[in-house]
C-alpha cells in the first residue's frame, strides 16, 4: 500500500462522512460500501449520544462535517506535499486519545496511518463508538489497512512510539510510563481571545462559536478573554445571545447553576446573561458556562505575556495583532497542518 492508496482511502472516508450533517442525514449514490455501513453508522452515532451526554446531535455532526471537509484528495495531498514520505519501515505507534469532544483523536489516527505506520489505539471511555466503526470502513475501502489498526483496553506491551493526550496529571504518568520511547505527550491547554474594543458585531458573533461549540470542552474552545481597560461588555453579550438555547441542555444548565451558586456564595464579582458568566480571573481554564477575562494596559506587554505562557495556550483569537492568530469563529475548524500544541505530528512520525 503506497501513499496514493492511503490518501485515496481517507478521501473515500470523507465522502462517506459527507452524508451526515446537521441539516439532514442523506444517503448518497456511489459511496463505496454504503449499503454495508450507512445504517450501522447511524446506530453508532446514536450510541455515542446515549453514552455521553455532551455528544449531542449538533456536536457530533459538526465534528463529522469538519472531517468530511478535510478528507478530500486535494486537501490531503496539499497537506502532505511538504513532506518526503517514501516507503518507510512501518512502526507501531501507540495512541492514547482523549474523549472531551467527538473524534478528538482522529488527527493522530490519520497521521499515523497516512505515513505508513501501524496504529495501536486506546480510546477514552467517553468516545468509544465512532472511530472503531470508521476504521472498519477504511479497511473495507482499502484492505491494505487490515492488520494495521488495533484498538485495545489493555496495557500497551509492544510499540515503538507513542502519542498521548491527557491532563497535566496524566501527562506525568505518561512521561514516566513511556520514558525511553519517542513520544508526543500533550497536557491541558486552553484558547484565548484578544479583544481591542474595535471588533464588529459579526466578529463577536463568530467568537461566540469559538466559546460555545462543544460546550467549551475542547482545547480549542475560548475560555479566556483579554480586554483593554474600561472595556464595555454590552456588545460582547449581545453577540453571544443567539447561543441562548444552550441553557436548555441539562448537563450545561446544571454546570451553569452550580458554578453560579459557587460564585455567589463566594461573593465573586461576575457578569452573566442567564446562560453565560464572565469573571475576572488570571487562570486560563474556566469552568463550563464561564469565561474568564483579564484586563491589559498595553498590547506589547500582553504579547510578551502570551509568549511566556505559550505552553498553556492552544489558540489565540485576534484581528491583526499577532502573526499566529486565529480568525474569529475559526478555532473549531482547524486545517490539517494546524497541529495540536504546534507539534508537527507527521514530521515526528517520519523520524521514528
TrEMBL record:
<dbReference type="GO" id="GO:0008218">
    <property type="term" value="P:bioluminescence"/>
</dbReference>
<dbReference type="InterPro" id="IPR008670">
    <property type="entry name" value="CoA_reduct_LuxC"/>
</dbReference>
<dbReference type="Pfam" id="PF05893">
    <property type="entry name" value="LuxC"/>
</dbReference>
<keyword id="KW-0521">NADP</keyword>
<protein>
    <submittedName>
        <fullName>Acyl-CoA reductase</fullName>
    </submittedName>
</protein>
<dbReference type="GO" id="GO:0003995">
    <property type="term" value="F:acyl-CoA dehydrogenase activity"/>
</dbReference>
<dbReference type="InterPro" id="IPR016161">
    <property type="entry name" value="Ald_DH/histidinol_DH"/>
</dbReference>
